[in-house]
Amino acid sequence: MPRLTSVRDLQDMRRGLTSRGDPIESGTPWVAVCAGTGCLALGARKVIDAFKEELKKRGMAEAVQLKETGCPGFCEKGPIVVVYPEGVHYVKVSPGDVPDIIEETIIKRRLMDRLLYVDPVTGARGVHEDEIPFYKHQTRHLINDNIKIDPKNISDYIALGGYRALARALSAMTPRDVIEEVKRSGLRGRGGGGFPTGLKWDSARAASGVPKYVIVNCDEGDPGAFMDRALMEGNPHSVLEGLLIGAYAIGAREGFIYVRAEYPLAVENARTSIVQAREHGLLGEEILGSGFDFDVRLHRGAGAFVSGESTALMNALEGKVGEPKPKYVHTSERGLWNRPSLLNNVETWANIPLIINRGAGWFSSIGTDRSKGTKIFSLVGKVNNTGLVEVPMGMTLREIIFDIGGGIPGGKKVKGVQTGGPSGGIIPEEHLDTLVDFDELISLGSMMGSGSIIVLDEDTCAVDLARYFVDFLCDESCGKCVPCREGLRQMRDILNEIVAGRGKAEDLKTLREIAGLMTAASLCALGRTAANPVLSTIRHFEEEYLAHIREQRCPALVCERLVSYFIRPELCIACGRCRENCPQGAISEGEPIEEGKDPFMVIDQSRCSRCGICYHVCPSKVRAVVRVSGKSSDPSHETAIDKALGGDSGWRR
Amino acid sequence: MDAADLDKVDEIIDRYRGQEGILIQLLLDLQSELNWIPREVISHLSERLRVPKSQIYRIASFYKVINLNPVGRHVIQVCMGTACQVRGAHKVLDFTASRLKIKPEETTSDLAFSLKKVNCLGCCSMGPVMTVDEVYHGGVNLEGAEKILKNLS
Question: Is residue A561 predicted with pLDDT exceeding 70?
């Protein structure tokens, strides 16, 4: 393993890699298979094994390099395979496709139509990334290299120009120059707060006290966000390089990478990247011969949402309970072990090498007035093309959902989007033309947060979703301060009553009052923002709350207590799946209406707990179980049932 | 716990000799060796590290990943992240719980299965997501969950 002791060593290593016919830059064929957690969940491991076996069988294992790469973001269509040098992009590849890919695409250089992406609207096939709408409308600087890099191999990163920014900072810039560059770029923290990164660096540099620490926050707890996972798993050296530059800028000799326990692959790849950087002399003493010493430790989280808050994370790094502390003094002045500590989110760190390499002017030319650069969003929920999308700040939600995301599945209508995780809010359809940047989303009562965009269709109940977030936060509140702990519990109780049809007229007023108190008096950001999902849904979907409270009705047919289930006898094939799965034993075979008629199932409404399992297990070709709004015990409700069942079809029996 | 197990525990403690702030990392390592953190281990840790038991319990009970009770041979996690939630994860959880006849966060009496809720595994594109013994399954509807459970029993 070559230890790099100067900038020249690094350049020589890069030159050596590219001239040796490294597959990334030369014209030899090679295959990239996404080995991110998403594609692995869809069977990428078997595809990789099939490639290994088939290439070996054909004696091509030497000639064709196989790379297990990071995640390019199009998780919806995984496992993803890209065949280079042409960059042919195949989707939903199964192990059975592998011999054909080798025979047709690698040997005969022919396309395989059946594995190409097909645009569901135009029917056009996309061969390369730039012909697939999901990628075409993105601006990818941070996740672009993921599909070209084996994250477990530092050489891949170096071959693509990795650690060049570090070399530049160490050899041609003073720490002050680095901070000025970051300040001029206009980069704001990607973890959710949007605080200007350069200012934070400046105060950590100016703070007195040694040692100083730099910290990577990869405790991506926001449910629905996974960009930090993709970066940490897919291109860990880009994060490490950013961290090294930050350490140089503020004068830190020690750093930490905090990765949440729920991301085992990110833990593994971060650990490997640290080991390899050490072996190459990119961590340790005298880095690249510059006199700069720095090393990193990896810290695994143990499952606590609140530990992603900066002071809580620092407590956890000290081996203590990961609870927040009041921030009378910024952590950049007194953080970990009361020393100046610079903590940034994964994506913030990954932006640093780009800024140093391409300049603050380039970076600030992307984005809006006050939000610069690109942002990775996780586009998920009820949308056709789910995955990670990197776009310039200032794209509209509608462009993201429809141009990149390809719209809503099943011809349903979009109801809104949820952004910002449990600290964010729900933005209704009429505001989808809003430009996405830090400030615009806040003005709508939501926030950017770490960048989750969860698309909701008409089957989502706004009240139920607010209840879900409050429930989530109730579990995750550390309990240290009263406003957050008790406020969340009270809100949960009220929302549980509303979704059960027992809401009271004054509930909305009470919810607003509790929310105001929590926002004003909670200790940390978790509590201060915890009411946002409730406030934003009341603001934008008040009529839905009123339907639950006044009419005991759930318009989206979601809230279990307000929906009843019936089986349409004429559709039922009496397969028995619902009876088998009913936890209440409420389903039995009905008395045939006439002799010789087909058998069917009936739900005993007095025993039904309205869990909806029957609705979901009924075979999709049959769909005999129907949902009806309102309570089955209400006599006036019978008309609604008759309507849903298509006339009196015997349900009363 | 027998002597061999305690030797193992000592070996893991020794890895962190001389480092600060390692208690959480130690508990995670011990758990990956033993599957859970038995009472004897906490006593032993307390003696070796000279840290009060109460402090170790405080940390062990704060973090979700640390098990203070034995876990089943198969650990099933159902992701309750928002993306999975809007695609029906709670149904998958209810269904799995009713099939295993336990509540979430419980273990069957024969120690065969533990069922856990997890707040987002970061595979939001393919929700609902369920993991069985660290193998990820995406796009799990009730039919899929049934199949997965059948393959286990």
Answer: yes
Give the number of domains in chain B: 2
Q: Which one of B64, B87, B98 has the shortest CB-CB distance to A583?
A: B98
Q: Which CATH number fits domain A374-460: 3.10.20.600, 3.40.50.2300, 3.20.20.70, 1.20.1250.20?
A: 3.10.20.600
Integer angstrom CA distances of residue A605 from A51, A454, A586: 54, 35, 7
B55 and B118 fall within a common domain: no
Query: In angstroms, how far is CA B56 from the centroid of its own chain?
Result: 18
**What is the per-residue pLDDT for A651?**
46
Range of B54's domain? Answer: 3-62
Write the single-letter amino acid at A196: P
Of B24, B42, B62, the residue that ends a domain is B62
d(CA A652, CA A638): 9
Residues in B touching A475 (Cβ below 8 Å):
119
pLDDT bucket at B79, cuts 50 / 70 / 90: very high
- Inspect the interface and report whether the beta carbons of A302 and B85 lie closer than 8 Å: no
ipTM for this model: 0.91
CB-CB neighbors (< 8 A) of B134 in chain A:
264
What's B119's domain CATH number? 3.40.30.10
Length reported for chain A: 653
Pick the residue with more confidence: A596 or A587?
Answer: A587
CATH superfamily of the A161-364 domain? NADH-ubiquinone oxidoreductase 51kDa subunit (3.40.50.11540)
Could you say which of B83, B91, B129 has the minimum Cβ distance to residue A381? Answer: B83
Put simply, whether A226 touches B (Cβ < 8 Å) is yes
Enumerate the H helices of A430-557 as residue ranges: 438-443, 462-476, 482-499, 507-521, 525-529, 532-540, 542-551
The neighbour count for residue B10, using CB atoms within 10 Å, is 11
* Lookup result for tokens 């595979």: B123
Partner-chain residue, chosen from A41, A262, A421, that has the shortest CB–CB distance to B118? A262
Strands A425-428 and A625-629: unpaired
CA dist A422 and A484 (Å) reads 13
pLDDT in tens, A528-555: 999 999 999 999 999 999 999 999 999 9
Determine the average pLDDT of the residues in A392-405: 95
- Local confidence band at A639 (pLDDT 50, 70, 90 cut-offs): low
Model confidence over A438-468: pLDDT tens digits? Answer: 999 988 888 898 899 999 999 899 999 999 9
The per-residue pLDDT for range A196-255, each reduced to its tens digit, is: 999 999 999 999 999 999 999 999 988 889 999 999 999 999 999 999 999 999 999 999
CB pairs under 8 A between A and B: 165
Find the helix packing angle between B23-34 and B39-49, rounded to 10°. 140
Give tens-digit pLDDT for A5-59.
Answer: 999 999 999 998 887 655 555 668 899 999 998 898 888 999 999 999 999 999 9
Q: What's the CATH number of domain A560-645, 3.30.70.20, 1.10.10.10, 3.40.630.30, 3.40.1710.10?
A: 3.30.70.20
Which CATH code, of 3.20.20.70, 1.20.1440.230, 3.20.20.370, 1.10.3720.10, is assigned to A463-551?
1.20.1440.230
Residues 332-371 on A with a CB inside 8 Å of B are: 337
Is A35 part of the contact surface with chain B (CB cutoff 8 Å)? no
